[in-house]
Each structure stands twice: as C-alpha cells, then as structure tokens.
Write a structure and sequence with these properties.
globular, seven-stranded mixed β-sheet, 5 helices, 171 residues
Length: 171
C-alpha cells in the first residue's frame, strides 16, 4: 500500500528553502466531526478530508467497530528531494523522529505505553510514520505526533546515534 500511495501522491520537488509538506493518510477511528466528506469507493464509509490553516492535510477513513486505529503521518520527502551531497537525509530524518522530545523522550516507548506500536519507512518519494493503537488511545498518539513535529530533540548525541543506525542499515 505504501509504495502505491506514494506513487499516487507524486513526489514534491522542493526548491530554495525546502518545505516538507505533511499528510496524514489514514486515521482509522469511529468518530470525528467537523470535516467535509469526499468520495469513497462504493459501499464504503465516506473518506473525510480537511486542510488545516497550517497546510496539514487530514484524511479520515472511519471503520466503525474497529478495536485498533492506524495513525499515519506521510511526509512528501525522499531521495528525489535530495542533492548528491545530502543523499540519505530523508532516511536519517526518519531515524531522528524517534529520538524524542522534552515531553516524550522515547517516542516508541510512549506509543507502547498507550498499548500500541510505532514504525516507519522511507521510500523514494515519501517517508511515513505509523502508530497502531487501541481506538481509545488515538488522541494520545495524535498529541505525540504534534509534540514531535514541534519539539524534536536534535542534539549532537541524537544525530550521531541516528547516523550510526543509518550507516549500519545501509552497509
């Protein structure tokens, strides 16, 4: 699904001061109000779509009765957005997103404490982060995502650790 969705979204080539646009692809939960509905496949719940004032796009696919929800953040950033001298930066940022914040020093542990699991992957034109949690914990994961968008710790130790992880993966 990830690669096909990434292909549908297309790569967002950035120029000048590169801006990373964020897309939440699916938030599976049973209730959400105030969003405008967009077309969905025949017989399926309508997909709800909203563009927030800050440009964040939210897509919501209700699946009533589900015990688990998937919160996904998709960044339109990958290899095509990188210069030769910064090749691998999207993958490095993927790792850095788990270094934590002042509020949640370990993102995976924070999601785990809510009864869920967090994962991520970098593809050619997108990098995505996914958390699977009990439906009752959806708001908690959304708050954690907002926290790491605002307050990610990017100190020398975090960068050095992430660089080493990426080097090991790519070796």
């Amino acid at each position: 699904m990830g690669q096909a969705l990434g292909a549908r979204m297309g790569s967002a080539r950035m120029v000048g001061a590169r801006r990373v646009r964020i897309r939440i692809v699916r938030i599976l939960c049973t209730t959400m109000v105030g969003l405008g509905a967009i077309a969905a496949p025949s017989g399926a719940e309508p997909i709800l779509h909203e563009v927030l004032p800050n440009g964040l796009e939210v897509l919501l696919l209700p699946e009533p009765g589900r015990e688990l929800v998937s919160i996904q953040m998709w960044y339109r950033a990958g290899a095509p957005d990188e210069e030769a001298e910064t090749q691998g930066f999207a993958h490095l940022l993927e790792h850095l997103m788990f270094t934590g914040t002042a509020v949640a020093p370990d993102f995976r542990a924070a999601v785990s404490s809510l009864g869920g699991q967090a994962s991520s992957s970098t593809y050619e034109d997108v990098t995505y982060f996914s958390s699977e949690v009990p439906a009752a914990a959806a708001e908690g994961v959304i708050a954690l995502e907002a926290d790491r968008m605002r307050g990610l710790v990017l100190d020398r130790a975090a960068i050095a650790g992430a660089l080493e992880d990426v080097r090991i993966e790519l070796a």
